Structure formats: C-alpha cells, structure tokens
C-alpha cells in the first residue's frame, strides 16, 4: 500500500446479518482491513486480542446494549484500540478510546479536567 500508512485493522461484532453485509461493503476499500467478524460475543474478545485489532465496530442489540465486556477491550487491548458503538435504532454512534498521559503535577490534572 502506498504512502507508508498501515491499514486500519477492523473487527466487527454484529447481531443483524444485514448490518454486517452492509458494513462489509462499506469497509471494502484501501486503508481498511476487515480482519474478523462474529455474532458470537463469547469468542469475539479472544479473536480481537489475537488479531491486533485497532478498531472494533460493535452493533447495539435491540435493547440498546452491547456485549458485556466489550468496553474491557480498552484495557486489555493495545493502547490504540477504538471501539465504535453503532445503533441501528437511532443511527447514533459512540466512540470509545483510551488515552494515556503523564501527570507531572496537580496543574496537569486540572488542565485535563478543564479541556474541552
């Protein structure tokens, strides 16, 4: 791939087959590699950790929930992992990511709280 940029490694957790089919078509482009997908939430975590995923797309179920433990991937996975939560009910998405900073003194913490 040109430009020296690595492809985004994406894993999808889905419950609606139509959602996954649409997602697969959307992601079929340079710079994005769909490395795995499952509707089995139990095996999703180990697959995600083993495949060095940097983006997890997770579909909310009809009750508006995501699989238990999904957000735990932020702690268990690499520092660069993002979780994008998608809702078909209201077309809303929420992005979760982990950010790590060093705190040298109390003003560093205050600055982080004040930032918009």
Provide a quick synopsis of the model.
29% of the residues lie in helices and 24% in strands. The chain is α/β, with parallel strands linked by helices and 116 residues long.
Question: What would you note in describing this structure?
Answer:
Helix 1 (about 15-25) links the parallel strand 1 and strand 2 (about 30-40). The protein has a five-stranded mixed beta sheet with strand order 2-1-3-4-5, with helices on both faces. The chain starts with 7 loop residues before the first strand and ends with a helix. It has about 120 residues and is an alpha/beta fold. It has one domain: Rossmann fold. It has helices at about 15-25, 40-50, 75, 105-115, and strands at about 10-15, 30-40, 55-60, 80-85, 95. It contains four helices and five strands, in the order βαβαβαββα.
Spell out the blueprint of helices and strands.
Blueprint: E1 8-13, H1 17-27, E2 32-38, H2 41-50, E3 55-59, H3 73-76, E4 82-86, E5 93-97, H4 106-114
Parallel strand pairs: 1-2, 1-3, 3-4
Antiparallel strand pairs: 4-5
Order of helices and strands: EHEHEHEEH
What kind of oligomer do you see? Answer: single chain
- Indicate the CATH architecture: 3-Layer(aba) Sandwich
What is the total number of structural domains? 1
User: Can you tell me the overall shape?
Assistant: globular
Strand residue percentage: 15-25%
Enumerate the strands of the largest sheet in spatial order, edge to edge or round the barrel. Answer: 2-1-3-4-5
- CA-to-CA gap between the ends? 36 Å
Unreliably modeled segments: none
CATH class: Alpha Beta
By DSSP (H or I, 4+ residues per run), the number of helices equals 4
- CATH fold description: Rossmann fold
